[in-house]
Write a structure and sequence with these properties.
- Helices cover about 30% and strands about 30% of the residues.
- β2, α1 and β3 form a beta-alpha-beta unit.
- It contains ten helices and 16 strands.
- It starts with a strand and ends with a helix.
- By secondary structure, the chain is α/β, with parallel strands linked by helices.
- The strands form four sheets. Strands 1-4-3-2-5-8 form a six-stranded parallel beta sheet, covered by helices on one side. Strands 11-12-15-14-13-16 form a six-stranded antiparallel beta barrel.
- α7 packs antiparallel against α8.
- The radius of gyration is 23 Å and the shape is elongated.
- The chain folds into two domains: about 160 residues, Rossmann fold, CATH 3.40.50; about 130 residues, Beta Barrel (Elongation Factor Tu (Ef-tu), domain 3), CATH 2.40.30.30.
Length: about 325
Protein backbone atom coordinates (compact mmCIF):
# COMPACT_ATOMS: atom_id res chain seq x y z
CA UNK A 1 0.00 0.00 0.00
CA UNK A 2 1.35 3.40 -1.00
CA UNK A 3 0.73 6.22 1.48
CA UNK A 4 0.23 9.70 -0.01
CA UNK A 5 0.26 12.65 2.41
CA UNK A 6 -1.63 15.58 0.93
CA UNK A 7 -1.28 19.18 2.07
CA UNK A 8 -3.71 21.79 0.80
CA UNK A 9 -3.40 23.13 -1.81
CA UNK A 10 -1.85 20.19 -3.63
CA UNK A 11 -0.46 20.01 -7.16
CA UNK A 12 -1.61 16.53 -8.25
CA UNK A 13 -3.34 16.45 -11.62
CA UNK A 14 -4.30 12.79 -11.93
CA UNK A 15 -1.40 11.63 -14.07
CA UNK A 16 0.41 10.38 -10.96
CA UNK A 17 -2.21 7.72 -10.20
CA UNK A 18 -4.00 4.94 -12.06
CA UNK A 19 -7.81 5.09 -12.29
CA UNK A 20 -9.11 4.68 -8.74
CA UNK A 21 -12.09 3.48 -6.73
CA UNK A 22 -11.88 5.60 -3.55
CA UNK A 23 -13.55 4.98 -0.18
CA UNK A 24 -14.13 8.21 1.76
CA UNK A 25 -14.28 8.55 5.54
CA UNK A 26 -12.43 9.31 8.75
CA UNK A 27 -12.69 5.60 9.67
CA UNK A 28 -11.82 5.79 13.38
CA UNK A 29 -11.89 2.19 14.55
CA UNK A 30 -12.05 0.75 11.03
CA UNK A 31 -15.06 -1.01 12.53
CA UNK A 32 -17.50 -3.40 10.86
CA UNK A 33 -19.43 -0.53 9.27
CA UNK A 34 -16.26 1.05 7.91
CA UNK A 35 -15.10 -2.31 6.63
CA UNK A 36 -18.30 -2.57 4.59
CA UNK A 37 -17.55 0.78 2.92
CA UNK A 38 -13.94 -0.14 2.19
CA UNK A 39 -14.79 -3.64 0.98
CA UNK A 40 -17.41 -2.16 -1.34
CA UNK A 41 -14.70 0.04 -2.89
CA UNK A 42 -12.45 -3.00 -3.29
CA UNK A 43 -15.25 -4.90 -5.02
CA UNK A 44 -16.02 -1.94 -7.30
CA UNK A 45 -12.34 -1.77 -8.20
CA UNK A 46 -12.22 -5.45 -9.11
CA UNK A 47 -15.40 -5.18 -11.17
CA UNK A 48 -14.20 -2.15 -13.13
CA UNK A 49 -10.48 -2.84 -13.28
CA UNK A 50 -9.61 0.05 -10.95
CA UNK A 51 -7.00 0.34 -8.26
CA UNK A 52 -8.43 0.91 -4.78
CA UNK A 53 -7.81 3.77 -2.38
CA UNK A 54 -8.98 5.18 0.92
CA UNK A 55 -9.04 8.89 1.67
CA UNK A 56 -8.92 9.89 5.32
CA UNK A 57 -7.94 12.97 7.29
CA UNK A 58 -5.48 14.01 9.98
CA UNK A 59 -5.81 15.53 12.52
CA UNK A 60 -9.40 14.95 13.56
CA UNK A 61 -11.57 17.79 12.16
CA UNK A 62 -12.87 18.75 15.62
CA UNK A 63 -9.33 19.62 16.74
CA UNK A 64 -9.10 22.14 13.91
CA UNK A 65 -12.65 23.49 13.89
CA UNK A 66 -13.58 23.46 17.59
CA UNK A 67 -11.57 25.85 19.78
CA UNK A 68 -12.60 23.90 22.88
CA UNK A 69 -11.04 20.64 21.61
CA UNK A 70 -7.26 20.40 21.96
CA UNK A 71 -6.82 16.65 21.59
CA UNK A 72 -8.96 13.72 20.49
CA UNK A 73 -8.46 10.16 21.65
CA UNK A 74 -9.18 7.52 19.03
CA UNK A 75 -10.07 3.86 18.73
CA UNK A 76 -7.36 3.55 16.09
CA UNK A 77 -4.67 6.23 15.98
CA UNK A 78 -3.27 6.77 12.51
CA UNK A 79 -0.48 4.19 12.73
CA UNK A 80 -2.95 1.42 13.60
CA UNK A 81 -5.43 2.67 11.00
CA UNK A 82 -2.72 2.39 8.34
CA UNK A 83 -1.91 -1.19 9.38
CA UNK A 84 -5.57 -2.26 9.28
CA UNK A 85 -6.15 -0.71 5.85
CA UNK A 86 -3.04 -2.37 4.49
CA UNK A 87 -4.31 -5.73 5.77
CA UNK A 88 -7.52 -5.16 3.81
CA UNK A 89 -5.55 -4.92 0.56
CA UNK A 90 -5.88 -1.23 -0.29
CA UNK A 91 -3.49 0.05 -2.99
CA UNK A 92 -3.32 3.73 -1.99
CA UNK A 93 -4.00 5.61 1.22
CA UNK A 94 -4.51 9.36 0.87
CA UNK A 95 -4.03 11.15 4.20
CA UNK A 96 -5.26 14.71 3.80
CA UNK A 97 -3.83 17.17 6.33
CA UNK A 98 -6.99 18.75 7.71
CA UNK A 99 -6.78 22.54 8.02
CA UNK A 100 -9.25 25.41 8.16
CA UNK A 101 -8.33 26.24 4.59
CA UNK A 102 -9.12 22.72 3.44
CA UNK A 103 -12.35 22.74 5.44
CA UNK A 104 -13.44 25.94 3.71
CA UNK A 105 -13.45 24.33 0.26
CA UNK A 106 -16.82 24.34 -1.45
CA UNK A 107 -18.28 20.90 -2.23
CA UNK A 108 -17.60 21.59 -5.91
CA UNK A 109 -13.94 22.39 -5.23
CA UNK A 110 -13.49 19.31 -3.04
CA UNK A 111 -14.85 17.05 -5.79
CA UNK A 112 -12.70 18.67 -8.46
CA UNK A 113 -9.45 19.00 -6.49
CA UNK A 114 -9.57 15.93 -4.23
CA UNK A 115 -11.41 13.35 -6.31
CA UNK A 116 -11.28 14.07 -10.02
CA UNK A 117 -7.72 15.47 -9.92
CA UNK A 118 -6.53 12.27 -8.18
CA UNK A 119 -7.94 10.20 -11.06
CA UNK A 120 -10.93 8.90 -9.12
CA UNK A 121 -13.49 7.06 -11.23
CA UNK A 122 -15.73 5.47 -8.60
CA UNK A 123 -16.50 6.88 -5.13
CA UNK A 124 -17.79 4.86 -2.18
CA UNK A 125 -18.98 6.32 1.13
CA UNK A 126 -21.55 5.80 3.82
CA UNK A 127 -25.06 7.21 3.51
CA UNK A 128 -24.28 10.01 5.97
CA UNK A 129 -20.90 11.09 4.57
CA UNK A 130 -20.59 14.82 3.85
CA UNK A 131 -17.85 16.97 2.34
CA UNK A 132 -17.02 20.57 1.59
CA UNK A 133 -17.62 23.69 3.70
CA UNK A 134 -19.86 22.91 6.69
CA UNK A 135 -20.52 19.47 5.20
CA UNK A 136 -22.89 20.89 2.61
CA UNK A 137 -21.96 18.25 0.03
CA UNK A 138 -23.65 14.84 0.21
CA UNK A 139 -23.27 11.64 -1.76
CA UNK A 140 -26.59 12.34 -3.46
CA UNK A 141 -25.06 15.59 -4.77
CA UNK A 142 -21.93 13.93 -6.15
CA UNK A 143 -23.20 13.36 -9.73
CA UNK A 144 -24.03 17.07 -9.92
CA UNK A 145 -20.69 18.32 -8.58
CA UNK A 146 -18.69 15.85 -10.69
CA UNK A 147 -20.69 16.64 -13.84
CA UNK A 148 -21.16 12.93 -14.36
CA UNK A 149 -17.44 12.11 -14.27
CA UNK A 150 -17.71 9.93 -11.15
CA UNK A 151 -19.66 6.75 -10.54
CA UNK A 152 -20.69 6.17 -6.95
CA UNK A 153 -21.95 3.65 -4.44
CA UNK A 154 -23.70 4.80 -1.28
CA UNK A 155 -23.40 2.25 1.52
CA UNK A 156 -26.54 2.05 3.63
CA UNK A 157 -26.59 2.20 7.42
CA UNK A 158 -24.86 -0.84 8.87
CA UNK A 159 -26.56 -2.21 11.97
CA UNK A 160 -25.95 -4.78 14.67
CA UNK A 161 -28.92 -5.76 16.82
CA UNK A 162 -31.06 -3.12 15.08
CA UNK A 163 -28.75 -0.26 16.05
CA UNK A 164 -26.23 1.59 13.88
CA UNK A 165 -22.62 0.47 14.13
CA UNK A 166 -20.68 3.62 14.98
CA UNK A 167 -17.49 4.75 16.67
CA UNK A 168 -19.63 6.51 19.29
CA UNK A 169 -21.42 3.26 20.13
CA UNK A 170 -18.11 1.40 20.33
CA UNK A 171 -16.60 4.00 22.68
CA UNK A 172 -19.65 3.66 24.94
CA UNK A 173 -19.26 -0.11 25.14
CA UNK A 174 -15.51 0.20 25.63
CA UNK A 175 -15.82 2.60 28.54
CA UNK A 176 -18.40 0.28 30.10
CA UNK A 177 -15.89 -2.58 29.87
CA UNK A 178 -18.11 -4.60 27.52
CA UNK A 179 -15.25 -6.10 25.54
CA UNK A 180 -17.26 -8.82 23.83
CA UNK A 181 -19.70 -6.25 22.44
CA UNK A 182 -16.81 -3.96 21.49
CA UNK A 183 -15.25 -6.82 19.53
CA UNK A 184 -18.54 -7.61 17.76
CA UNK A 185 -18.87 -4.00 16.62
CA UNK A 186 -15.23 -3.71 15.57
CA UNK A 187 -15.20 -7.06 13.79
CA UNK A 188 -12.06 -7.98 15.75
CA UNK A 189 -10.65 -7.81 19.29
CA UNK A 190 -9.92 -4.36 20.71
CA UNK A 191 -6.17 -3.75 20.85
CA UNK A 192 -3.83 -1.06 22.10
CA UNK A 193 -0.10 -0.77 21.52
CA UNK A 194 2.36 0.45 24.11
CA UNK A 195 5.81 0.28 25.63
CA UNK A 196 6.90 -1.58 28.78
CA UNK A 197 8.35 0.87 31.30
CA UNK A 198 9.56 0.74 34.88
CA UNK A 199 6.72 0.72 37.39
CA UNK A 200 6.48 0.70 41.18
CA UNK A 201 7.53 -3.00 41.26
CA UNK A 202 5.04 -3.91 44.00
CA UNK A 203 3.63 -6.77 41.96
CA UNK A 204 6.83 -8.77 42.12
CA UNK A 205 6.93 -8.47 45.90
CA UNK A 206 3.34 -9.73 46.04
CA UNK A 207 4.10 -12.69 43.81
CA UNK A 208 2.31 -11.12 40.83
CA UNK A 209 4.95 -9.39 38.68
CA UNK A 210 3.38 -6.96 36.25
CA UNK A 211 4.44 -5.16 33.11
CA UNK A 212 3.65 -1.46 33.36
CA UNK A 213 2.51 -0.39 29.90
CA UNK A 214 2.92 3.17 28.69
CA UNK A 215 0.07 3.70 26.26
CA UNK A 216 0.05 6.56 23.77
CA UNK A 217 -2.16 9.53 24.64
CA UNK A 218 -4.09 9.07 21.38
CA UNK A 219 -5.79 5.87 22.52
CA UNK A 220 -9.12 5.29 24.16
CA UNK A 221 -8.83 2.76 26.98
CA UNK A 222 -11.41 0.35 28.39
CA UNK A 223 -13.19 1.49 31.53
CA UNK A 224 -11.44 1.11 34.87
CA UNK A 225 -11.33 -2.52 36.02
CA UNK A 226 -9.59 -5.88 35.78
CA UNK A 227 -9.64 -7.82 32.50
CA UNK A 228 -8.57 -11.03 30.85
CA UNK A 229 -6.16 -10.00 28.11
CA UNK A 230 -3.66 -11.35 25.66
CA UNK A 231 -0.40 -9.52 25.08
CA UNK A 232 1.87 -9.74 22.06
CA UNK A 233 5.50 -9.80 23.23
CA UNK A 234 8.46 -10.45 20.95
CA UNK A 235 6.17 -11.87 18.27
CA UNK A 236 4.23 -14.28 20.52
CA UNK A 237 0.84 -13.95 22.26
CA UNK A 238 0.62 -14.63 26.00
CA UNK A 239 -2.46 -14.82 28.24
CA UNK A 240 -2.77 -12.60 31.29
CA UNK A 241 -4.78 -10.28 33.49
CA UNK A 242 -4.72 -6.50 33.19
CA UNK A 243 -5.63 -3.76 35.64
CA UNK A 244 -6.71 -0.45 34.12
CA UNK A 245 -7.04 2.08 36.89
CA UNK A 246 -5.57 4.12 39.69
CA UNK A 247 -4.42 1.51 42.26
CA UNK A 248 -6.55 2.91 45.13
CA UNK A 249 -5.02 0.47 47.64
CA UNK A 250 -1.73 2.36 47.29
CA UNK A 251 -2.77 5.82 46.06
CA UNK A 252 -5.27 8.21 47.59
CA UNK A 253 -5.08 10.68 44.69
CA UNK A 254 -6.03 9.73 41.13
CA UNK A 255 -3.56 10.40 38.34
CA UNK A 256 -4.87 12.20 35.28
CA UNK A 257 -4.53 9.04 33.17
CA UNK A 258 -5.15 5.50 34.49
CA UNK A 259 -2.24 3.07 34.56
CA UNK A 260 -2.21 -0.14 32.55
CA UNK A 261 -0.53 -3.11 34.25
CA UNK A 262 -0.44 -6.64 32.86
CA UNK A 263 0.40 -9.83 34.74
CA UNK A 264 1.15 -12.61 32.26
CA UNK A 265 0.32 -16.20 33.17
CA UNK A 266 3.28 -18.61 33.16
CA UNK A 267 5.71 -15.98 31.91
CA UNK A 268 8.94 -14.91 33.58
CA UNK A 269 11.05 -13.11 30.96
CA UNK A 270 12.33 -9.59 31.54
CA UNK A 271 10.51 -7.44 28.97
CA UNK A 272 11.38 -3.92 30.10
CA UNK A 273 11.75 -1.69 27.06
CA UNK A 274 9.71 -3.94 24.76
CA UNK A 275 6.95 -2.70 22.46
CA UNK A 276 3.80 -4.73 23.05
CA UNK A 277 0.20 -5.03 21.89
CA UNK A 278 -2.64 -5.73 24.34
CA UNK A 279 -5.89 -7.38 23.25
CA UNK A 280 -8.72 -7.02 25.76
CA UNK A 281 -10.97 -10.08 25.91
CA UNK A 282 -13.38 -9.87 28.85
CA UNK A 283 -13.90 -7.90 32.06
CA UNK A 284 -13.44 -9.72 35.37
CA UNK A 285 -14.38 -7.08 37.96
CA UNK A 286 -14.25 -3.47 39.10
CA UNK A 287 -11.07 -1.99 40.51
CA UNK A 288 -11.41 -1.55 44.26
CA UNK A 289 -9.48 -0.52 47.33
CA UNK A 290 -8.33 -3.33 49.66
CA UNK A 291 -7.76 -2.89 53.38
CA UNK A 292 -4.47 -4.79 53.32
CA UNK A 293 -2.01 -6.67 51.14
CA UNK A 294 -3.35 -10.06 52.24
CA UNK A 295 -6.82 -9.23 50.91
CA UNK A 296 -5.30 -7.87 47.69
CA UNK A 297 -3.24 -11.01 47.08
CA UNK A 298 -6.26 -13.22 47.76
CA UNK A 299 -8.24 -11.31 45.13
CA UNK A 300 -5.38 -11.50 42.64
CA UNK A 301 -5.34 -15.27 43.07
CA UNK A 302 -9.06 -15.33 42.26
CA UNK A 303 -8.47 -13.10 39.21
CA UNK A 304 -5.70 -15.40 38.00
CA UNK A 305 -7.89 -18.47 38.41
CA UNK A 306 -10.69 -16.72 36.53
CA UNK A 307 -8.31 -15.89 33.68
CA UNK A 308 -6.95 -19.43 33.48
CA UNK A 309 -10.49 -20.81 33.23
CA UNK A 310 -11.43 -18.22 30.64
CA UNK A 311 -8.51 -18.98 28.36
CA UNK A 312 -9.03 -22.74 28.67
CA UNK A 313 -12.26 -22.12 26.74
CA UNK A 314 -10.97 -19.27 24.55
Amino acid sequence: MEIINIHHPHAFNGDEFPPLAIALGYFDGVHAGHQKVIQTAIEAGKEKGLHTAVMTFDPHPSVVLNKEVKHVRQLTPMKEKVELLEQMGIDYLFIVHFTKEFASLSPQSFVEKYLISLNAKHIVAGFDYTYGHRGKGTMEDLPHYSEGKLAQTIVSKQELDAEKISSTRIRKELLAGNMEETARLLGRGFTVKGHVIDGEKRGRLLGFPTANIEVGKDYYLPGVGVYCVRMLVKGAWHNGICNVGYKPTFHSVKDEIPTVEVHLLDFEDNIYGEDVCIEWNTRIRDEKKFEGLEALVAQLEKDKKCAIEYFENF
